[in-house]
Amino acid sequence: MFEAIGLAIVIPAGAYLFGLQAGHMGVIGVGSATVATIWNFLFNLAFDHAMQRLVGHTNKGMGTRILHVALFEGGLLMILLPPIAWYLGITLMQAFVMDIAIVVFYVVYAFSFNLAYDRVFPIPASPAYAM
């Protein structure tokens, strides 16, 4: 549901904002979402294995989580920029600006989606969770 709604927003908005045909933005959106899903699995698996090997556990404090997200996004950026630039016939800098705009959208969208989801589908109060 998250990705479907996100793509339903990002494809027409991106096509309009970047002056692209909706079909081209659709390829970028669906392709990027697919790559991000695969990268997420592989990166998290590798990150947790590296943590286990280096520090003996996978408990992540705030600093580790910040490092995790920075490395994840940096890796995803390096994976996506060349094919997006090639597909659209644009420079890497133009693809970078486009990617940053999409990342900003998804940060705001993810926050809003999760807030709405938690309100629509709250976890029922139970003695184990009640404070």
Q: Total strand count, please?
A: 0
Question: So how many helices?
Answer: 4
**Mean pLDDT across residues:** 91
Q: Tell me the count of domains.
A: 1
For the sheet with most strands, the description reads:
none
Helix content: over 70%
Strand content: under 5%
Overall outline: flat
Order of helices and strands: HHHH
Radius of gyration based on Cα positions = 18 Å
Structural class estimated from helices and strands: mainly alpha
What's the end-to-end separation, in Å?
31 Å
Give the low-confidence spans.
Answer: none
Provide structural commentary.
It is a single chain. The protein is mostly helical and 131 residues long. It has one domain. It has 4 helices and no strands. Helix 1 crosses helix 2, helix 2 packs antiparallel against helix 3 and helix 3 crosses helix 4. The protein is flat, with a radius of gyration of 18 Å.
